[in-house]
Write the structure tokens for this entry.
Amino acid sequence: MHAYRSHTCADLTKANVGEAIRLSGWVHRVRDHGGILFIDLRDHYGMTQVLCDPDSPVFAEIEKVRSEWCIRIDGTVKARDEGLINPKIPTGEIEVFIRDMEVLGASEELPLMVFGEQEYPEETRLKYRYLDLRREKLQNNMKMRSDVVASMRKRMWDKGFREFQTPIITASSPEGARDFLVPSRLHPGKFYALPQAPQQFKQLIMVSGYDKYFQIAPCFRDEDPRADRSPTDFYQLDLEMSFVEQQDIFDTIQPVIAGVFEEFGGGRKVDQTWEQISYRDAALWYGSDKPDLRNPIKMQVVSDHFSGSGFAIFAKLLEQEGTEIRAIPAQTGGSRKFCDRMNAFAQKEGLPGMGYIFWRDQGEGMEAAGPLAKNIGPERTEAIRQQLGLGVGDAAFFLGGKPKAFEAVAGRARNEIGDELGLTDKDRFAFAWIVDFPIYEKDAETGKVDFEHNPFSMPQGGMEALHGDPLKVLGYQYDLACNGYELVSGAIRNHRPEIMFKAFEIAGYGKEEVKKRFGGMVNAFQYGAPPHGGCAAGIDRIVMLLADEANIREVIMFPMNQRGEDLMMSAPSEPINEQLRELSLRVIEPD
């Protein structure tokens, strides 16, 4: 017999009754039923109930066993009495009578329990992550993550892609976040960087003639953490293709992503039609460039109804350039109690409040109620109702100002209204491509034009577009939104050196600076670069959605905490003096 096991803890069935077997695993829990000791023995694959009574030669040893001890048992498979069958587990029809036992690894008192669903502080969970990972939920999450990656790989190979690896130590590159720098011992005073993404390398692979590339790529960004973002590193399904247009990328990645969600989504509906929404419309309708389309609410501009109206706050606001009033329609939200609740929500978000109108039946017909209705009068109120398509029992909420200043809050209010009123379909994955991103933005204080989005995107209209108003230049850039999260980001690349130099010049980067910062790519583009484009899908975020988790750390094996610290391995750590001398570095304490 094998030294540790003849079967896993998920293998045994009624067909094995009478067999002598060997199992190894962890003691999930111990139960004493009138002198008979029952142990739920757990391994990566499942659970088996094992037991012994005073007749067992190792009964005295079994009495010493505690939760999370790692043990090996030899025993005989027995059928459970019919009334004791556990249909919830594959081994529920049998149990194993223990004949022999060996302790493979005893456990000290546990800082957190593996059995049950007790809540522990995140700091405790991350410090003892190896124990936390033994818990059933995390075991399932990590298995799903592994299976998702395997499925992605297979789907990409089936589409004619090959996987190539790109460097982990490279040059610093502005990708929109801070680099992790790595000092060079052989070149004192110089630094490598960990790649924020394989962006330049995958474009160079296209220049090298490989046509279709993909990689399950680690990426490193020194970012502030969020619930849906790791503060240090993450993984993405990275791909690039030559001789393609924007729609070709969509047609390639959509069946891969949809297939993964169908395979691992637990039966939830996966939208098959993926709408394409302009960045501008997404901001207007949803207050976000990653809208949750499970929520049917679509915001609208209603400025005309408030211009010159009796509601002085909005009327005066609209006299300022670049301002507008937007409405959030709320079907079934027509009660003063709900409107007051949403007003309180707006105040928590830092606003004075949200204006509202709600419509009710007064027996003799519909009546518009609320402070706004009284101020603007019945004619304007009725025009708003008709524009928004609302009726009795419905409401509308209003925000005003310069869109950039209130869009994000409006988007959060839309989500809150959808959730509160039960309008959001929680049993669904709703996808949309966000397209037509502006390439440039103007700093409100300095008036300087800089890149708003990916500087490597091909401008729509090519060189000709760059000779007009830069704030009107759109890029062939796109994101895929799902349920309020950005899952995919990509672009058709700017592969023409003269267009690239002009694009950077508008943002204040001279030709020599571009050559210095992106020399490898700029040089390569002078030797017959093909039109190419691609995208990257965030694996951590995809698994987070599939596992129905609110925090990305629940689907990462060994995540950092909110401060970017690894409490288990005590990282980051202070270097020793010998290391600093070798690297010609000196640490200066911050003030």
